Amino acid sequence: MAYPRSVSQPVRNVPNMWRDLADDLLAALLPGRCPGCGARAEAVCGACAASMRAAPPGRALPGVSWSVAAFAYEGVARELVARVKYRNERVAVRWLACELARACATSPIDFDVITWIPASAARRAARGIDHGELLARAVSRELDVKVTGLFRRGPGPPQTGRPAAERRAGPALSATTAASDRVVLVIDDVTTTGATLIAAAQALRTSGARDVAAATVARTPRPGCRAQDAAYTRHAV
Predict the structure, then answer these.
(1) Which residues touch 84 (CB under 8 Å, ≥6 apart)?
(2) Backbone dihedral angles phi then psi of residue 166, each to the nearest 5 degrees
(3) pLDDT, tens digit, for every residue of 180-190?
(4) How many CA atoms lie within 13 A of 130 on its CB side?
(5) Structural domain count of the chain
(6) Residue 183 counted as domain residue
(7) Nearest to 37 by CA among 178, 232, 198
(8) Any idea what the CATH number is for the domain that residue 123 is in?
(9) pTM recorded for the entire structure
(10) What is the tens place of the pLDDT at every residue in 147-159?
């Protein structure tokens, strides 16, 4: 499979390249702060990045042959995800995409295409963006694998904030494009119950996908297993 490229390699998508250059310039002129310690950093300082815990073991997900998460969903990792979802911080998107691409390099299968779980209509309308798409496109550039939208999301509330019992049904997903005989990597931000990824795998396999893999930025620890000194929003500005 293609391994993550170095940041010095050329980006083939020219509009994305100019957007990233603009983001870098803004970051230099208006540097942000690390979500862990509050120091000037984009998107997180080295010390706080080193303190982020690896994702806890996840359960097997029906229809998903291989899955990975980069971090435990707590502390700095949780704040970084929030900055992507609710503040559209592109520097955080690129940092998380690099980490997720490194995690994907351990996959035993090669990916033919990358896709994402689309945000709910309400969230897209409120934010004006689909953070899942931004993340998937950034991972695509790192892994040099084609990215395309393969899902349509039916009516229903976002999964975020819903009780676990309600989340287990997953969102209403259907494949918009046949995934015939392709190995698909599905990108999402957080795995909690795994219902969203299970629904995605079912839709893809129904449309003819040969195999389905999944990668998320973070996985939620079981109750009682979160770090006691999590830095989430303690110093965030």
Answers:
(1) 92, 93, 96, 131, 134, 135, 189
(2) -80, -30
(3) 899 999 999 99
(4) 17
(5) 1
(6) yes
(7) 232
(8) 3.40.50.2020
(9) 0.78
(10) 999 998 877 655 5
